[in-house]
C-alpha cells in the first residue's frame, strides 16, 4: 500500500523585515556566562543567538499591528484605542469590564489586593511565580490542586492542566468556602509545560465552585493555545473554531488576568477583565494608584491598539495551527535525539526534564539552571530554568523543592524558522552527549523576591 504523503504545517505569513543576529564564539559565550553569574536572565540579548528565554513580549507583530501603532491616540484620558480594546475584549473574550495594566502582574496585584484577605486560601492548577507572589503579598496562601499527572513529565494524559476536584472539595471542607475568595485557574499551565485544561474539567470546576459560591478567576495568558488543544483533543470540539472555544472557556469564569505579551502578540501590555461591577469599580479606582488612569493603565494608546489587533490575530485557526506546529516540530526533533522532555508537548515551548538529563546532579545543586547554562555555552541558545530556583522559598524560609525540574525552551511567536528549530535540537543533543561530565552549581547571590530573575551562581569544581 502507498503511504499517504505527510501534510506539513507552515506559517500563514511571509517575512517582510529581518533583524540581524550576532554570532558568538565559544570563548565569548564562556565570558558572557561568567559575567552573568550563570543566570541566563543576566545575559545581554546581544550575546544570544536564538533567544528562547521566554515567549513573553517577544512575538513579531504583524503589519496590521504596526499600522495600528500609527493610530495611537495618546490622550491622557479616554483614548479611542482604549475603547477599541474594550470592544475586542467583550467581543472575543466575552468579559464585561476591562482595566488595562502595563502587563499581567499589574492585573494580578490589583486583583489580589481586592479579593484576598489575610489568611485566605487560593487553590489553583499549579502555581505561577508572579501570580503566587501577589497572592502571598496580599496575605493569602496558594494551594496546588492540579491533577497528579501534571507533576509527572512522562505521563501523556492529554489534559495535564486539569483541576483535581477532590483536592478542591477537601480544601473547601477543611477551610470553609468563606476562606476561599476564588479558584485561580490557568489555561495552558505554564509551569507544567504549557499543558491544557479540558472544557469538561472546566465545566465541572464551574459546577463545584458555583455550589459553594466561589469565584473562578482565569489566568488567560495563553488561552488561545489551550483552545487549540481542546480543538485537537476533546470530543465535540473538532468543528469549533479557536475563537468559539476561547469564548466558551471564558464563559465558565468570573474574570481574568491577562499578560497580553504572550497569546495577544504584543511586546507589552496586559489587563484585568471582570464581570462583577463591584470588583470592577474597586479595580478602576485602584488602577490609578498603581498603573495609571483607567483608560490607559500604564500603556500608550498605540500599545492598546496593537493589543486589540493582536487579540483578533491570536484566535485565528491557521495562526494557532502553525504556532503549536512549530513547537511540536522541535519536540519531535528533541525526542529523536533521546532528550527527555515533558510529554505531551505543550503550547509555548519544550520543557526538558533536567532531573532525567542530569540525574547525577541533586536538586539542591540546580540541575535545570546548570543545563540552561550548558546549552547557552554550546550554541548561544538562551533558555530558562523552571525548577527549584523559580519555585523560590516558602513563607518560613524553606526552599520549595518542586517535583518538576525543567529547562524551558520557549518559542516566541512568528519569530524563528524551522532551521532555527533544527539548530536548537542539535545543540541540546550535543550537551546530552557530554552530560556525564557536567557538574552542578551553587547559588552565591539570592534576591528576596522572584529570585530566578537576578540570582547568581558559581560552578562546582
Ligand atoms: N510569564 C514567562 O516567561 C514572563 C515572566 S516570568 C519569567 O512565562 C502567566 C501564566 C505567565 C506570566 C508571565 C504572568 C505574568 C502571569 N501568568 O510577565 O507580568 O506566564 O506580563 O505576566 C512569563 P507578566
Descriptive notes:
The protein is an alpha/beta fold. The protein folds into 2 domains: 26-55 and 317-459, Aspartate Aminotransferase, domain 1; 63-314, Type I PLP-dependent aspartate aminotransferase-like (Major domain) (Aspartate Aminotransferase, domain 2), CATH 3.40.640. It is 40% helix and 13% strand. The strands form 5 sheets. A 5-stranded mixed β-sheet has the order 2-8-7-6-5, with helices on both faces. It has a 3-stranded antiparallel β-sheet with strand order 9-12-11. α7 (199-212) links the parallel β5 and β6. It starts with 25 loop residues before the first helix and ends with a strand. The model has no long low-confidence stretch (mean pLDDT 97). It binds ligand PM9.
Summed up:
With 461 residues, the protein is α/β, with parallel strands linked by helices.
Characteristic terms for this protein:
three-stranded antiparallel beta sheet, 16 helices, Aspartate Aminotransferase, domain 1, 461 residues, alpha/beta, 14 strands, Aspartate Aminotransferase, domain 2, binds ligand PM9, 2 domains, five-stranded mixed beta sheet
The whole-angstrom Rg is 21 Å
- Biggest sheet character: 5 strands, mixed
Structural class: alpha/beta
The count of strands amounts to: 14
What would the CATH topology of the largest domain be? Aspartate Aminotransferase, domain 2
How far apart are the first and last residues' alpha carbons, in Å? 58 Å
Compute the number of structural domains: 2
Beta-strand fraction estimate: 5-15%
- Sketch the topology as an H/E string, one letter per element: HEHHEHEHEHEHEHHEEHHHEHHEEHEHEE
The CATH homologous superfamily of the largest domain is named Type I PLP-dependent aspartate aminotransferase-like (Major domain)
Residue share in helix: 25-40%
Bound ligands, named by name, code or SMILES: ligand PM9
Biggest sheet: strand arrangement: 2-8-7-6-5
The coarse silhouette is globular
Secondary structure tally, helices: 16
CATH architecture of the largest domain: 3-Layer(aba) Sandwich
Low-confidence stretches: none
CATH top level label of the largest domain:
Alpha Beta
